[in-house]
């Protein structure tokens, strides 16, 4: 299937201003079952109209909406529109379901008070308007904020769980103790334990997060192997005794000098031959699009950087600090692995 060429700015603006209508089309296509029919395609319009008991000419216009979004490809060989054939781009149904169905990241993000900035972005850019600590504090200040934020993070952990699972064999063979720095509510650590029966994992996080990790322990495959170490990575060195340390969606929250400081602390804490793992959404057009909510919302938050970096930034940083055997493992999100020299 050919990929749709990038739209002109004018055409893109027309789609954006009609975004809520586009969502209406997509949700309807999902609910009717049209996406199930279109994705394996090609399927001709007359047959679709019969199958879904809709009027062909109306369906033609409906499918034009999907085509304008780049979501279906159409072949029309003659004047009879009922002979036009359609096929949806691969993954469309799953993508629509991910956004409008249960567990939607977008719906979770919509709970944040982004409306405080809406229509007032110019003032926000000048620093006259922004989130108060009650709206959104970074790092979270109250127990409620902590719980809400960590829950939000766990909702978007899918690509991380996937890439850690995909490479479990090579990550954990011969490893005994894993420290997940800024490891949220422990969802990743718990998942890793399911893949590595010999491993013990600790989440290192601000003390306020302890009760959330405790809840995760309860549902963990082997609660005895999941622990929590309360601490503040600004105030102290990272704890020692772990042969693997991970930063997952932690470094991108901070400016370069802070992320360097954290990676240096990990280097100091690891034993010779120890393994460092970095996973976050390294910058690509797709991931920047997925990050749109945070890019917008965090305009009003000075304490959080939210910086999608290219993977080459991290490979360069790791080399500079002295790590070796730096690899970028493939996945929905890539996983960077590196070793502290054994000698
Ligand atoms: C963006 S979240 C990522 C959570 C988790 N790794 C994930 O990907 O779902 C950043 C994490 O860093 C933790 N954190 C922030 N400041 C910290 C600090 N000073 N010391 C330790 N952890 C901190 C937060 O509590 C949070 O769990």
Automatic annotation (TrEMBL):
Sorted UniProt keywords: Methyltransferase, S-adenosyl-L-methionine, Transferase
GO molecular function: methyltransferase activity
GO annotation (BP), single: methylation
Pfam families attached to this UniProt entry: Methyltransf_2 (PF00891)
Gene3D superfamilies named among the record's database cross-references: Vaccinia Virus protein VP39, Winged helix-like DNA-binding domain superfamily/Winged helix DNA-binding domain
Protein transport among keywords: no
Stretches of the chain forming a coiled coil according to its record: none
Ribonucleoprotein as UniProt keyword: no
Family matches, as CDD domains: AdoMet_MTases
Boundaries of every O-methyltransferase C-terminal domain copy: 175-323
InterPro entries noted in UniProt: COMT-like (IPR016461), COMT_C (IPR001077), SAM-dependent_MTases_sf (IPR029063), WH-like_DNA-bd_sf (IPR036388), WH_DNA-bd_sf (IPR036390)
PANTHER family: O-METHYLTRANSFERASE CICE, PUTATIVE (AFU_ORTHOLOGUE AFUA_4G14580)-RELATED
Record's protein name: Methyltransferase
Organism of derivation: Micromonospora cathayae
Lineage: Bacteria, Bacillati, Actinomycetota, Actinomycetes, Micromonosporales
């Amino acid at each position: 299937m050919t990929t749709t060429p990038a739209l002109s700015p004018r055409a893109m603006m027309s789609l954006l201003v009609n975004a809520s209508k586009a969502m209406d089309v997509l949700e309807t296509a999902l609910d009717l079952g049209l996406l199930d029919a279109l994705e394996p395609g090609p399927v001709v319009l007359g047959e679709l109209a019969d199958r879904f008991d809709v009027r062909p000419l109306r369906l033609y216009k409906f499918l034009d909406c999907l085509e304008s979004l780049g979501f279906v490809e159409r072949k029309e060989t003659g004047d009879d529109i009922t002979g036009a054939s359609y096929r949806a781009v691969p993954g469309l149904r799953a993508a629509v379901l991910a956004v409008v169905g249960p567990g939607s990241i977008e719906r979770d993000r919509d709970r944040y008070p982004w409306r405080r900035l809406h229509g007032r972005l110019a003032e926000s850019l000048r620093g006259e308007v922004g989130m108060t600590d009650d709206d959104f504090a970074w790092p979270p200040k109250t127990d409620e904020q902590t719980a809400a934020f960590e829950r939000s993070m766990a909702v978007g952990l899918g690509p991380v769980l996937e890439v850690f699972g995909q490479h479990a064999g090579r990550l954990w063979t011969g490893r005994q103790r894993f420290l997940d720095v800024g490891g949220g509510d422990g969802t990743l650590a718990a998942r890793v334990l399911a893949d590595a029966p010999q491993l013990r994992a600790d989440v290192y996080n601000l003390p306020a997060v302890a009760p959330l990790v405790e809840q995760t322990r309860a549902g963990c495959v082997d609660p005895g192997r999941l622990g929590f170490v309360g601490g503040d990575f600004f105030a102290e060195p990272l704890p020692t005794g772990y042969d693997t340390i991970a930063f997952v969606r932690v470094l991108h929250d901070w400016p370069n000098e802070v992320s360097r400081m954290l990676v240096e602390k990990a280097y100091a804490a690891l034993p010779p031959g120890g393994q460092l793992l970095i996973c976050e959404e390294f910058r690509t057009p797709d991931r920047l699009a997925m990050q749109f909510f945070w890019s917008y919302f965090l305009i009003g938050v000075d304490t959080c950087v939210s910086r999608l970096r290219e993977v080459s930034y991290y490979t360069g940083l790791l080399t500079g600090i002295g790590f070796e055997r730096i690899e970028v493992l493939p996945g929905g999100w890539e996983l960077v692995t590196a070793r502290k020299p054994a000698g």
